[in-house]
Design brief:
ABC transporter involved in vitamin B12 uptake, BtuC; 7 helices; mainly alpha
């Protein structure tokens, strides 16, 4: 768990430090370049950090990492497109959804405990399909 904690702390610092660059990227590559953002480097580093986070989380925790696909989309729907607020709010939303899923997994078939991944998949899969079919998850 120490590996996950260190990795998450470093990645949160990275994404919060570059939140203005990601806001500039929302306006388009040319606008971001004119604002001094190295578009290719920011995109490549962001994808690399996100891929490493996903790989480590899924390897240690399993499918619970599926929450990472859903929470940013829900947060965007609730808060808009400003990355200054979306990044920390997504972390809080993910924590909240996981807490609710864990509570449900403990009380649905009490005294039996369902795997949390089953509950998160049951809640997250319909939302993920909705965002995928609707096609405006980034608006």
């Amino acid at each position: 768990m120490l590996i996950i904690g260190i990795l998450i702390a470093v990645s949160i610092i990275y994404f919060i430090y570059h939140r203005w660059d990601y806001n500039a990227l929302d306006s388009g590559d040319d606008t971001a370049k004119s604002l001094g953002v190295n578009v290719d480097r920011i995109r490549l580093c962001g994808m690399f950090v996100a891929s490493i986070i996903t790989a480590v989380i899924v390897s240690f925790l399993g499918i619970i990492g599926f929450i990472g696909l859903i929470c940013p989309q829900i947060t965007k729907k609730l808060m808009g497109n400003d990355n200054r607020y979306i990044i920390p709010a997504s972390a809080i939303m993910g924590s909240l959804i996981l807490l609710i899923s864990d509570t449900l997994s403990r009380i649905i078939l009490s005294p039996q405990i369902l795997p949390v991944g089953a509950v998160t998949s049951f809640l997250g899969a319909p939302l993920f399909l909705y965002f995928l079919i609707k096609g405006d998850a980034d608006k």
